[in-house]
Design goal:
single chain; six-stranded mixed sheet; 17 helices; 2 domains; Rossmann fold; about 40% helix; five-stranded parallel sheet; about 20% strand
Length: about 375
């Protein structure tokens, strides 16, 4: 397939690997931000092919994984109400809350439905005026335009029975938070290509220069990732700092301006708690006050729910690049895809899920 097969070409991959090995002189720690990149890295054994001097660590780039426990509990409270149709993408249904998950609520009689677009939930609201329809709006900047459009459409149609439970987070503030930590190990970033498709590369430039950290916007195929690593290593070895775009076939420096404008019309930047990490100032999105009729936290008055994270799950350390999944005592034992302790084992983009799926649990 054009624009795909060449990014999985073994010959090209070997040539890039050889170049990485030839330019690497010092030990470096590089973080890939996106969970999709993590899965590609583990599936293809990229981390095991790189020179021993290069360590890849996994960042908080899985939106399901960083959705805070209290937000899951809010979803559970709302979904259990008899007059509610609760709509969500499928990957959120098995994420454990304090006591149960959305699948359990469904088994107990809650009307919980899997949809493939927030506009599907708008359609359900249109067809069921006697019900309150809630969509679980989880994601990074990538999914924000779709969720904003759903609210915009419902508001325009006067669908008072449609709302969204917002759990949107933003990548740049998380990168800043990690780099500012006294425990930080990251020396270079592979930035998430899908996020940059919407937001572009411009907002990463101040981060790169402030923290003296190379940032390369990278795709998801093996050749993409290897080329991204090569670009980061070349900067690190040369002592230069810049934001580069490996994913130029998709990402433009300015991003998608119409999508950005739609987000700004419907949403505003707000503080947001990240599961396993804690609150990061100005790291999320919430609905603007003029759209409060479509804000599920306001409609159902669940904004005050606060819960503590379970101590036995180290997903927060995994999401910060401080631990690998197999360093968890529960990994592959008490915690597995059938009995997950945390979201990083549930999500299709979670690091723990990737390590388990591709047999890295045998290292535990």
């Amino acid at each position: 397939m054009k624009y795909l097969d060449e990014y999985r070409n073994p010959g090209i991959a070997r040539r890039i690997l050889a170049e990485i090995k030839s330019v690497t002189r010092n030990p470096w720690v590089i973080m890939e931000i996106c969970g999709g990149q993590t899965h590609s890295i583990i599936k293809n054994g990229i981390d095991q092919l790189l020179p021993k001097e290069i360590e890849l660590v996994h960042g908080p780039g899985c939106p399901v994984c960083v959705t805070p426990l209290e937000q899951i509990d809010k979803a559970l409270v709302i979904a259990a109400q008899p007059d509610v149709i609760f709509a969500s993408f499928g990957d959120m249904l098995r994420v454990p809350g304090s006591e149960k998950d959305l699948f359990m609520v469904k088994s107990e009689g809650g009307d919980v439905r899997i949809v493939y677009s927030p506009l599907d939930a708008v359609k359900i609201a249109r067809e069921n005026p006697e019900k309150k329809v809630v969509f679980f709006a989880v994601g990074f900047e990538t999914t924000a335009p779709n969720n904003a459009m759903a609210v915009w459409q419902a508001h325009r149609e006067g669908l008072k029975n449609f709302s969204i439970l917002v759990s949107h987070v933003l990548v740049p503030p998380a990168m800043r938070a990690l780099l500012s930590s006294s425990q930080n190990r990251v020396q270079g970033y592979l930035a998430a290509g899908h996020v940059c498709t919407i937001m572009g590369c411009e907002e990463y430039e101040p981060i790169a220069h402030e923290f003296k950290v190379p940032i390369v916007v990278t795709g998801f195929e093996p050749v993409d990732i290897l080329e991204g690593v090569l670009m980061v290593v070349k900067q690190l070895e040369a002592g230069t700092v810049a934001v580069e775009n490996q994913y130029a076939r998709v990402v433009r420096r300015e991003g998608n301006r119409p999508a950005q404008e739609l987000i700004k019309k419907v949403m505003q930047v707000s503080d947001r708690k990240w599961r396993g990490i804690g609150e990061i100032p100005a790291s999320g999105l919430s609905l603007r006050p003029e759209f409060s009729d479509h804000d599920a936290e306001v409609v159902f008055q669940v904004g005050d729910i606060q819960v503590e994270e379970p101590e036995e799950c180290i997903s927060g350390l995994v999401l910060q690049g401080l631990k690998k999944p197999f360093e968890c005592a529960a990994f592959g034992k008490q915690c597995n895809p059938q009995t997950p302790l945390g979201a990083t084992m549930v999500s299709t983009e979670g690091a723990c899920s990737a390590y388990y799926a591709y047999s890295r649990h045998q290292l535990a």
